[in-house]
Amino acid sequence: MTTRRTAEPSLESGDLLALERQVCFALSVAARNVVAVYRPVLEPLGLTHPQYLVMLALWQHGPSSVKELSQLLQLDPGTLSPLLKRLEAAGLLRRERDPRDQRNLAVALTDAGRALRDRAERIPAGIVERLGMPVEELAALQSALTRVIAASQQALAGPADDAPAGLPAREA
Question: For the whole model, what pTM was predicted?
Answer without folding.
Answer: 0.81
